[in-house]
Specification:
Layout (H helix, E strand, L loop, with lengths): L5 E9 L2 E8 L5 E6 L7 E2 L23
Antiparallel strand pairs: 1-2, 2-3, 3-4
Amino acid sequence: MREHAWITESAHTTLEGRLLYVRCAQCGTRRMDLQGHPEQPPSAASRSVASLGAACAPASKPCALNH
């Protein structure tokens, strides 16, 4: 399990809710989240895709680049 600091790059509304395109602020990993209702938190709608050469630390540590 990895801990990421997700930031929203873009979003749009679909019939199923709000689709968010998010990226980890530290390692650049990207995924899509779906927020079915405005009062609910979004959940992952896709798998995370890591940026080349970057990785995040385990959940017990903050996200960091491995150089």
